[in-house]
């Protein structure tokens, strides 16, 4: 494999992740034999981050597959800000009819504990599907001084 400049490596990883997810969605069973989705109301996937990020890309890939499978429009609505609380609160206030979904990650569970105005409990929401997993990594400035690598923690 050719050496990639350091600035291209994250973009390549994102490309590989989205390609893998798209392949995974393509392998999902065809939903045409299942009953039709209730009504023809569009499904909205609320993303708590701005457009163009990895969560947005995942939501759009997932939305396309959902739309094809359920034969209803799927809208991706980016509501960034307030440590994901704006999007979470919008979904919390929406009708619990299965037409509004929230794409969540780590801040969903943390925000109620660190943002006093976030008056929600993650248990108020119903999990629908695990879309993917991601590693959490510590980074440090690698300048002068001693650098230590922490060994992976056992599960």
Fold and architecture overview:
The protein is mainly α and 155 residues long. The protein has a domain at 8-27 and 37-124: D-Maltodextrin-Binding Protein, domain 2 (3-Layer(aba) Sandwich), CATH 3.40.190.150. It is built from 4 helices and 3 strands; from the N terminus they run αβαβαβα. It has helices spanning 9-26, 54-70, 85-93, 106-114, and strands spanning 43-47, 74-78, 100-102. Strands 2-1-3 form a 3-stranded parallel β-sheet. Helix 1 (9-26) packs parallel to helix 2 (54-70). 15% of the residues are buried.
How would you characterize the largest beta sheet?
A: 3 strands, parallel
Q: How many strand units? A: 3
What percentage of amino acids are in beta strands?
A: 5-15%
> Which CATH architecture of the domain at 8-27 and 37-124 is right?
3-Layer(aba) Sandwich
- Round the mean pLDDT to the nearest integer and report it: 79
Q: Would you give the CATH topology of the domain at 8-27 and 37-124?
A: D-Maltodextrin-Binding Protein, domain 2
Concise synopsis of the structure shown:
This protein is mainly α. Helix content is 34%, strand content 8%.
What order do the helices and strands come in, and which of them pair?
Elements: H1 9-26, E1 43-47, H2 54-70, E2 74-78, H3 85-93, E3 100-102, H4 106-114
Parallel strand pairs: 1-2, 1-3
Which key features would you list for this structure?
4 helices; 155 residues; 34% helix; D-Maltodextrin-Binding Protein, domain 2; single chain; 3-stranded parallel β-sheet; mainly alpha; globular
């Amino acid at each position: 494999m050719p050496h990639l400049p350091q600035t291209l490596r994250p973009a390549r990883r994102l490309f590989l992740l989205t390609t893998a997810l798209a392949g995974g969605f393509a392998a999902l069973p065809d939903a045409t034999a299942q009953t039709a989705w209730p009504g023809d109301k569009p499904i909205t996937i609320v993303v708590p981050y701005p457009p163009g990020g990895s969560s947005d890309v995942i939501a759009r890939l997932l939305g396309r597959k959902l739309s094809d499978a359920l034969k209803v429009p799927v809208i991706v609505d980016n509501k960034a800000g307030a440590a994901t609380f704006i999007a979470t609160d919008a979904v919390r206030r929406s009708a619990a009819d299965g037409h509004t979904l929230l794409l969540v990650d780590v801040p969903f569970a943390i925000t109620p504990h660190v943002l006093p105005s976030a008056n929600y409990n993650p248990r108020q929401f119903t999990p629908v599907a695990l879309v993917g997993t991601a590693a959490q990594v510590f980074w440090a400035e690698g300048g002068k001084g001693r650098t230590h690598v922490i060994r992976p923690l056992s599960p």
